[in-house]
Amino acid sequence: MTYCVGLCLKDGLVFLSDTRTNAGVDQIGTFRKMTLFQKNHDRFFTLLSAGNLAITQAVKEILLQGQLIGGKNLWNVENSHDAAVVVGDAIKQVYEREYQSLKKAGLDFNCNLIFGGQVKGEHPRLFNIYSAGNFIEATPETCYFQIGESKYGKPILDRVLNFDTPLNLATKCALISMDSTLNSNISVGLPLDLLVYEKNSLKASKLVTMDESNPYFQMIHQLWGEKLRAAFNSIAEPSWSGAQKSHSISLPAKKMGAVPIIHSPKKVLAKTAVKPPQKPLKKPSLAIKKVAAKAKA
Question: Could you give the 3-state DSSP secondary structure of residue 84?
Fold first, then answer.
C-alpha cells in the first residue's frame, strides 16, 4: 500500500509520499513513489504514484524516455493540462500492452497518480489521474488530492487546509496527515519524500527525504500525539442527568423520536396432553372382608 498527497495552493504546490510498497511479516519493500521532471527553467513537473508497482514503473519509464504520444511528450507540451493528457495516454499505452496478461493472472489494472507542476507563463496546476487515463484538476475549492491509504490523513487536511494556506503551514499539515497514517497503517512507512514547490521557481528548491532521525518529523510525531490527548482530555464528558445543560446528552432529537425498545415476549408453556388423575381405589370395608372370608370357607 502507499500514501501520497498533493496540495495546490495560492503560493505553490506541496507533494509528500511514503516509500513502502509491501508490509508482510518477513518482507518490506521500499520504492520511491515521487518522480521529478525539469527542463531548463521552462517547466517543472512532479509525479506521485500508487497502485501496481510494475504498472506505475512502466508509465514512468515512458514519460522519462520522452516517447512521443500523438506528437507530444512532457518536454514539448504547451501547458500543464496537455502534460496531464500525455500522462493519461502513457497509462493507456501500458493498459493496451499489459491488460490481457493481467486478466489471465487474475490481477486488476491498478494505477492512480497525482501529477502537478508548472509551465512557464501559467500558474501551478495539480491533477489526479486514474487507471483509465482520465483525470480531474484541483480547484481553489478542492485544493488537494490523496491516493493510496487516504482515510487516516484526511481529517486534518479538511479541518486546516484551504487555497490561501501558506506553504509552510501546508507543509506541516501534510506531515501531520502522513504521521496519522503511519500511526494507523503498517502498509505505509518511512522514509518520506517531501517537495515544496514555490510558484514560478520552476525548480526543486525545497526537496528532502525524511526518515525517523529527521528532527522536525520526530517533533511532529511526538507533539501531535501529545496535543491530541490533551485536547481530548480537555473536552467535558457527557452529562446523563442533565445537571449541566451545555453537556447534556440525554435531550431528545428534534427530527426523530426515541429509539423504540422492544420487550421480549412472555414465555408460553407448550401445551401437552395431560391425563386426568385417577381416583385411588378405596380399601374394602370390614363387612365385605367377613363376607369374603365366609365364601372361602
Answer: helix
Residue 166 lies in a domain: yes
Helix (H, G, I), strand (E, B) or coil at 219: helix
For residues 184 and 153, give the distance between their C-alpha atoms in angstroms, rounded to a whole number: 10
Q: Can you read off the three cell numbers belonging to residue 53?
A: 508497482
Residue 282 maps to a domain: no
Instruction: Give me the pLDDT at residue 286, please.
Output: 63
Q: Residue 8's CB: how many other CB atoms inside 10 A?
A: 24
Q: What is the CATH number of the domain that holds 172?
A: 3.60.20.10
pLDDT tens-digit series, residues 30-61:
999 999 999 988 999 999 999 999 999 999 99
Give domain status of residue 230, yes or no: no
Domain that holds residue 211: 3-221
Main-chain dihedrals φ then ψ at residue 72, nearest 5 degrees: -125, 150
Per-residue pLDDT tens digits for 273-283 = 666 666 666 66
Which tens digit of pLDDT belongs to each residue from 183-240?
A: 999 999 999 999 999 999 999 999 999 999 999 999 999 999 999 999 999 999 999 9
- Taking the C-alpha atoms of residue 147 and residue 188, their distance in angstroms, rounded to an integer, is 12
Between the CA of residue 180 and those of 142, 153, 247, what are the distances in Å?
A: 21, 6, 29
User: C-alpha cell of 91?
Assistant: 497509462
Total structural domains within the chain? 1
- Whether residue 17 is contained in a domain is answered as yes
Instruction: Give me the sign of the Cα torsion angle 184, 187, 190, 196.
Output: negative
What is the rounded distance in angstroms from the CA atom of residue 242 to the CA atom of residue 187? 45
